[in-house]
Amino acid sequence: MPRVAVTRRITFNAAHRLHNPNKSDEWNRETFGKCNSPNWHGHNYQLFITLEGEPDPETGFVYDLAKLKQIVEDNVVSQVDHKNLNLDVPFLEGTLTSTENLAIGIWNQIKPHIQGADLVSVRIVETENNIVEYRG
Amino acid sequence: MPRVAVTRRITFNAAHRLHNPNKSDEWNRETFGKCNSPNWHGHNYQLFITLEGEPDPETGFVYDLAKLKQIVEDNVVSQVDHKNLNLDVPFLEGTLTSTENLAIGIWNQIKPHIQGADLVSVRIVETENNIVEYRG
Amino acid sequence: MPRVAVTRRITFNAAHRLHNPNKSDEWNRETFGKCNSPNWHGHNYQLFITLEGEPDPETGFVYDLAKLKQIVEDNVVSQVDHKNLNLDVPFLEGTLTSTENLAIGIWNQIKPHIQGADLVSVRIVETENNIVEYRG
Amino acid sequence: MPRVAVTRRITFNAAHRLHNPNKSDEWNRETFGKCNSPNWHGHNYQLFITLEGEPDPETGFVYDLAKLKQIVEDNVVSQVDHKNLNLDVPFLEGTLTSTENLAIGIWNQIKPHIQGADLVSVRIVETENNIVEYRG
Amino acid sequence: MPRVAVTRRITFNAAHRLHNPNKSDEWNRETFGKCNSPNWHGHNYQLFITLEGEPDPETGFVYDLAKLKQIVEDNVVSQVDHKNLNLDVPFLEGTLTSTENLAIGIWNQIKPHIQGADLVSVRIVETENNIVEYRG
Amino acid sequence: MPRVAVTRRITFNAAHRLHNPNKSDEWNRETFGKCNSPNWHGHNYQLFITLEGEPDPETGFVYDLAKLKQIVEDNVVSQVDHKNLNLDVPFLEGTLTSTENLAIGIWNQIKPHIQGADLVSVRIVETENNIVEYRG
Fold it and tell me: What is the DSSP letter of C66?
């Protein structure tokens, strides 16, 4: 049976700052540059979630993308949209808010809710120049 | 010898409707929501066809993309562009016109015509939020 | 006082067909080409609504874009999204569904609901190659 | 002599929050919704600066866009990029950080530095759905 | 009667170089920087042609965009696509190939062929950061 | 430990021409069509470099993208931006300047400079319709 990958894009806007509290301010400034700026900055994040599986003969769907959207809204967007990734997000607590760690955190938030298809990719476009992908 | 992947984008506009004729109208409305709307809706489809192979030393090409474009025009675009995917397309007859099934159908239309390189991906961007990929 | 223009983008998907019922089939085929295809085709329409006015000192807003979005949802999107522009849309009844006429129709649907700022533009991106703008 | 408009795009990332300190918290929450979220959120801002004038016969340029870029870097980007629009930006002090006010502020920062051509537009794409333009 | 603006996008790829032959090499290098690089560079140009007029009651069209495309193909694209703007293009002979002058040249190529609607804008996106518009 | 892929986009503009000097002019015209045009043409190339590795616990980074950008600037962009790929680029000497060969050449320029993460993809978007990817 053919396997097909389906991707849903979901956007959110958030503030964050790259800062390792176990290191000196100087180390942080040298390591993270302007991304360490104390009063935060932010991004329009584009999130692409990809599932893979066999299309259901009755629907033609690998997975109901409206249902996927709801899972992402409930478990990710509700926590991160118009929020501060460093201060407001339980699933990122104690984590450096790099896009890499954000992708891993989002994967872990979504993974338990997906049945009947395989989560294969969480991709985040942070800016038009910076993209991160986590495939589990 | 190095293997390289080359992708050609081709666009088409079509109408369709998600509807399983073996199910009740109520089941169809509940399952497909507004995509089941009786008088059709439509999309600007973006199709990305990817072939993989070794660049020919004489041309530097994995595959002549003008030739690939012609194959896709002759075997796909001529059947789907400005058409109704449910009513007008021989290679989708009897198929639910989900983007998943469309990708599989397009793969099957193109595959027999590609020699000297491997068809590795048919990707369809149905809307900016919904993307499907079939890798055979 | 400074005047500023604010624009909200809203997307919808619809089917349509260019066909003048007062003319022969041959005239329609010659005039509209593949856009006259009998079983409809469709597009991902992007709609850009622009209002102009002075920012309110208490909010910094020319107009509450969430309210504008609601007006457009109630008076336009609810009638056209996942619908057939020729068959399903009261405000286009008896109209050739060219993008020009669609823009004029949308303007007329929105105009009576905007107070406190001026509607100055309805712009529709029908495909990446075709754009229409109506400024009243 | 022909007049031509030239536009330079410049991007920056910033945090902000919509909040009127002269109003109650409840008023702010009701008026600004999630944009009032206390710990900030942020955007990838795209800024489009347009100048108009006659092309110089010796260069073919209305204005040297590298020089325009430098003016914008020195007077805008250096103050807003990877910064908090509410806390860090002298030219926005005491201003509600709506995109409307941001456009007016940027116009005022750039205007005095442009000679030999006319500043005619400051346009900001805050998100793919929200766009603001100030034409002075 | 309502007036509506319709825009057609057309793309082409070309090489060029900014160089004023009446000036010294040093002046050219200082004025144009890397755009003066002797062996040419190039761009994917996006051209947006806008016409304005009243929609024809029989077609709903301000202007047949297929006809507009043909006019642009015959009078512009055939001369510039996959060509060198400095060496190959009769309508740019003796002209500095700035995007400003390119827009004026394209306007003059198209203008005589448009009847029944008004040519109101030639806009060129040279790169994602540089845009030029000529309105006659 | 989780492995994550990080991608940096970098743009450059260049001229080139497809021409095999070991073949007749006629063969070149027939094989490469307008891409063989004698006085060059050009593109806005978008380059996407992807590295894969484990995020560093102290930074959250798979690789410092500012450092990656510098490596690409020093070893690729400095040689190709605003240059002629056929005439000016040491690492392409004696090579047909197809996008396939450009991707392989760029991989070889970058590869020796990447430590602590794996170079996994060099992807080039030559035009919106033509994309090439080399994965080593």
Answer: H
